[in-house]
Amino acid sequence: MNRYTNVGIFHCVEKLHNLRALGKNLSKLHREWMGRRNVEVMYVKGCSIKDDDYDSLKTELNRCRWTKDWQRHSMLQAAMHRNINTAIRHFSTKPLGDSTSRRQRLVILGTGWGSYSALCCIDKSLFDVLVVSPRNHFLFTPLLASTTVGTLEFRSIIEPVRNTGFRESAHFHLSYATDVDFCKKQLHVTSVLRPTLSYKLDYDKLVIGVGALSNTFNVPGVETNAFFLKEIRDARKIRNKILSNFELALQPGIDRDESERLLHIVIVGGGPTGVEFGAELYDFVEQDVARLYREQQKQVQVTLVESNQILGAFDKRLQSYAEKKMKQRKRFNIVQSAVVEVTPTSVKLKDGEVIPCGLVVWSTGLAPRHFTSALAVKKNRQGQILTDGHLCMKSDTTGSVFALGDCADIDDYSLPCTAQVAERQGRYLADFLNKGCPPHMEPFRFKNMGMLAYIGRYEALVDTPVARLYGKSQKEFHHGFFGGQHI
């Protein structure tokens, strides 16, 4: 009949009417198999995947990509393509409702490092996975600062969440959670697209990975006059503001004092985000402004305000090197102080000094989101949800609610709020759920692989357990390392 006959698809006459329901031609049959609607792959030749459905193979491919096991990923992918016409042995043509009755419903809140890592590594043959997030993409935050000045384009550092593959299109909700009824196992959700639309979602397992907000420390004017740098929309706003300030400074009627104010950028916070944004900004002034706005280049000034030491998590020697390099740069100042007020045209410091400026970028620590603050559960002093070593929420007695990333903290094992920690927690939690939540499983333990920071002029810092490096050669390592991630 055709080449599919050789692999025994039509091995049973009784199933012909079911195959007609899937489609009357091979192209539609192929689409049904790839889309995992009513067809399940029961055996894949050449792949060490247990006899299961297509989702097992998809999950294993995602896991290999996320853990950078490229050798196994290539083998599985090659086997899938090589055997696309010879790997199918049997079909399950049961209605979708029958096949999902054995799966638990797992709801994941958020699409950040922790949630996305769990989503990529979870075994979707065991769970119906639903994701609720106001953001429809995963954001590779270490390169976010590069997009503010055009070094990278926004689309280069995001990955659409739907690319991970959902059993049903409706399993991703562009919404945000407002409350949880832990007794009824129900999640209260509000649509991002239509705020008047609210609904409830039932769950068997719930993963809370909503992240955190930038901490304003209740400084007056920050919310209305400062720019944050946590999302793509933040980077886009900053880029637009920088360009509009340069254009405005050129227009007639703008005197020199006003022009200098417009081109004075204040960065509040000397952590990796603040330092890397300052570095990208300095490169932008040296390379692009010198070419596009020659007359304004000498008016540009950058001030970094930090109450303590810059890059506090790095080795002291690397901190000193970064500070020395930044202080050597013209029109780049480091001020050790605290901001007490932000106005539309200036920043006021603790000692009373007022710095006129055209842009304020605020990057000073984290604060819990409203959803996290509103939950009546056990939290630490910072407002993070307390969990046990298996990332299970301590206030939940059913063992069905988990929390990870910046919104959570392990009791008696506090960890820094970094992407590296959240990503590892996501992998661990997926493995824990895949194994059926065994109580004897080892608790989560974090092994720090090191930190990187770009400081401008093609120089970077590398702080790892085995080496502490700085200099120009490290910049290529910095961008090369990040570029090799799954983005």
Describe what you observe in this structure.
The chain has 487 residues and is an alpha/beta fold. Helix content is 32%, strand content 21%. The strands form seven sheets. A seven-stranded mixed sheet has the order 7-6-5-2-1-8-19. It has a four-stranded parallel sheet with strand order 12-11-10-16. Strands 13-14-15 form a three-stranded antiparallel sheet, with no helix packed on it. Strand 11, helix 12 and strand 12 form a beta-alpha-beta unit. Helix 3 packs antiparallel against helix 4 and helix 6 runs parallel beside helix 14. It is globular. The chain starts with 15 loop residues before the first helix and ends with a helix. The N terminus and C terminus are likely disordered.
Concise description?
The protein is of the alpha/beta class and 487 residues long.
Number of helices: 15
Strand content: 15-25%
SS class: alpha/beta
Lateral strand order in the biggest sheet: 7-6-5-2-1-8-19
**How many β strands by DSSP?**
23
Whole-Å distance between the termini? 43 Å
Unreliably modeled segments: 1-52, 82-101, 482-487
Mean pLDDT: 84
Quaternary structure annotation: single chain
Sheet having the most strands: 7 strands, mixed
Helix content: 25-40%
